[in-house]
Amino acid sequence: QLINKSLNDFDNFDRKMMQRCLELARHALGCTSPNPMVGAVIVKNGEIIGEGFHPKAGEPHAEVFALRDAGENARGATVYVNLEPCNHYGRTPPCSEALIAAGVSKVVVGMVDPNPLVAAGGIARLRSAGIEVVVGVEEEACQKLNEGFIHRIRYKKPLGILKYAMTLDGKIATSKGHSNWITNTAARKRVHKLRVGCDAVIVGGNTVRQDNPYLTSHQAQVHNPLRVVMSRNLNLPSSANLWDIREAPTLVLTEVGANSEFKEFLQNKGVEVVELTPLTPSVAMAFLYERGFCSVLWECGGILAANAITQGAVQKVLAFIAPKIIGGSDAPTPVGELGFAAMTEALQLERVTVKLVDSDLLIEGYLPQL
Ligand code: AOF
Ligand code: ZN
């Protein structure tokens, strides 16, 4: 049945379908690296006749699941997908060819695939087969969902996200080192959710000694990031929550020549130990890139955070600010020495957003690319 729709209605419908793609894609939050999160919806006569998402690298792509779901009905239909259909033989065959073979008549794409193996080749292939292709619906939201994947492809390293929680007077713990809790329950829940979408969470030895954190997403049946500890000398407590790997795996990064007895102790607990020389934030990030990671969350103290920033291992900052004052001239702060003397040297965050999480503030922004 033909319904009279204005051009704007069509746009709204396209946007709604793309949002559905993103919702489907998010079912695999944290599980797809080094691949992106992708969802696909197939529509005919204004109705959804097939849906799918990419569950994990090595498995079929979103379009393939959606085509299977729609079956023969896909002929003449419109396909929505948040990332350009691929056009290469990777772990799986090209989606462009699958879409052509299924006889779809139109493809609506959220964003071009930055992967040089694809890079608009999928769009060109579809068009050369006479399929109408629309690009850029809900583009910003599509890019945000896969910002880690995009960064990984573009810079050949994972996206580094620095997250910290501080009091209104800028402290991350009292001068005695006590920090449970600075932020409210809602803000802490938000951090747990944030971890679901990251491939790794990194802390230094100090955080393990002071806070004894879990660094998990604290929810059953969701993705937990790899928990990474950076420790040059392995001067770490023998009982720590991170050494219990039943909920999530732990990796300790250290240097050659570190305490071999403790190294063995960790390995016996099932904790992976890797020696990197020199052990620096940028070397750690290069190692995690090789592992196929797209996004890495720095949940470390100020000294490691300052090093990570200096070495270009941080691109995005999430700062939770609680309306509490604890004072203390020796109380630690979120970022240690950066060597700046003048305000003109300050790192100015871009694309800043501010949210209220109950009574805590969340300021989010991006560091200018070095
Ligand atoms: C799509 N749909 O659902 C995904 C795409 O090794 P492969 O075969 O899995 O290919 C991985 C690349 O394919 C990945 O780097 C990205 O460029 C694209 N991902 N493409 O058409 C999908 N996940
Ligand atoms: Zn594909």
From TrEMBL:
Residues 12-134 form the CMP/dCMP-type deaminase domain. Keywords: Hydrolase, Metal-binding, Multifunctional enzyme, NADP, Oxidoreductase, Riboflavin biosynthesis, Zinc. Its EC number is 3.5.4.26, 1.1.1.193. Its cofactor is Zn(2+). It comes from Mastigocoleus testarum BC008. One of its GO terms (biological process) is riboflavin biosynthetic process. Pathway: Cofactor biosynthesis; riboflavin biosynthesis; 5-amino-6-(D-ribitylamino)uracil from GTP: step 3/4; Cofactor biosynthesis; riboflavin biosynthesis; 5-amino-6-(D-ribitylamino)uracil from GTP: step 2/4. This is Riboflavin biosynthesis protein RibD. It catalyses: 5-amino-6-(5-phospho-D-ribitylamino)uracil + NADP(+) = 5-amino-6-(5-phospho-D-ribosylamino)uracil + NADPH + H(+); 2,5-diamino-6-hydroxy-4-(5-phosphoribosylamino)-pyrimidine + H2O + H(+) = 5-amino-6-(5-phospho-D-ribosylamino)uracil + NH4(+). The active site is at 63 (proton donor). PANTHER family: 2,5-DIAMINO-6-RIBOSYLAMINO-4(3H)-PYRIMIDINONE 5'-PHOSPHATE REDUCTASE (PTHR38011:SF7), DIHYDROFOLATE REDUCTASE FAMILY PROTEIN (AFU_ORTHOLOGUE AFUA_8G06820) (PTHR38011). Substrate binds at residues 179, 195, 215, 299. Gene3D superfamilies: Cytidine Deaminase, domain 2 (3.40.140.10), Dihydrofolate Reductase, subunit A (3.40.430.10). One of its GO terms (molecular function) is zinc ion binding. NCBIfam families: eubact_ribD (TIGR00326), ribD_Cterm (TIGR00227). InterPro entries: APOBEC/CMP_deaminase_Zn-bd (IPR016192), CMP_dCMP_dom (IPR002125), Cytidine_deaminase-like (IPR016193), DHFR-like_dom_sf (IPR024072), Eubact_RibD (IPR004794), RibD_C (IPR011549), RibDG_C (IPR002734), Riboflavin_Biosynth_HTPR (IPR050765). It holds the Pfam family dCMP_cyt_deam_1. NADP(+) binds at residues 165, 181, 207, 211.
